[in-house]
Amino acid sequence: MVEQTLFFLVPVSSPQNFLDCVARAAEKRCHMQDVVSRAGAFARNTWAQRRTSSLKPTPPSIHHAARRAFSATRPNAKDHHFDTLKFVQRLQQEGFTEEQSRAMMVVLSDVIEESIQNLTRTMVLREDQEKATYTQKVDFAKLRSELLSADSTESSLTRASHERLSNELTKLNNRLRDEVQRTQASVRLDLNLEKGRIREEANSQDLKIKETETRIEQESAALRERLEAVKFSTLQWLMGVCTGTAAIILGVWRLLM
Questions:
Q1: Which terminus of the chain, N or C, has less C-beta within 10 A?
Q2: For 12-16, 122-126, 192-196, 218-222, which range has the lowest pLDDT when averaged over its residues?
Q3: Any coiled-coil ranges, and where (predicted)?
């Protein structure tokens, strides 16, 4: 799986391309003799150290445990990620010795292994990615269900609040209508009472006016009778004065005659 991922990510660094590069680099063999000799010395020293450490005597218990572990478990073979035998043979064909070719193969294998490890540090397995994707889908579905439940709860609460406000507004409208009707009835009653009082006052004023007119007529008739009586007495007085004056004039005329 790591080889497929590496081949998919960096197809230029495939073993065949690298072998071609090494073949072209063989032309500069003179410049690489020092490097190859150092690599050979490093490989020899490493091999000698491993050999000496393997030749050290071990206690029987450790040896027995190691044998049991060796017999119980299968040792992990190192994966070189390319054909090492073909690489060594190609280097030998280019003029390198067998020891130098193996040393270069070991160094190249270590470099490739380290490069693969550096690349795989930032990678994830497909199972982990699928697990993370499934977890995200589950979390998203859970979040969606929570949002839907919260939305339905908010909708029900909003609907209940709307109905409650509608009922309160209806009650308030009915109360205002009753108050307006009661006020109109009270005002209408007051107006009717005021009209009746004004009508009664008008009737009483009419009666007073009629009584005043009757009294004036009576006073006028009495005054008229009194004037007639004064006029009659005045006429009687004038007739008596005229008669007396005429009698005096006749008496004087007789005396003079």
A1: C
A2: 12-16
A3: 159-186
pLDDT computed for residue 170 by the predictor: 93
Query: Do residues 114 and 179 share a domain?
Result: no
Write the DSSP string, the chain: -HHHHHHHH-GGGSHHHHHHHHHHHGGGHHHHHHHHHHHHHHHHHHHHHHHHHHHS---HHHHHHHHHHHHHSPPPPP--SS-HHHHHHHHHHTT--HHHHHHHHHHHHHHHHHHHHHHHHT---HHHHHHHHHHHHHHHHHHHHHHHHHHHHHHHHHHHHHHHHHHHHHHHHHHHHHHHHHHHHHHHHHHHHHHHHHHHHHHHHHHHHHHHHHHHHHHHHHHHHHHHHHHHHHHHHHHHHHHHHHHHHHHHHHHH-
Task: Tell whether 119 and 132 lie within a shared domain.
Answer: no
Percentage of the chain exceeding pLDDT 70: 68
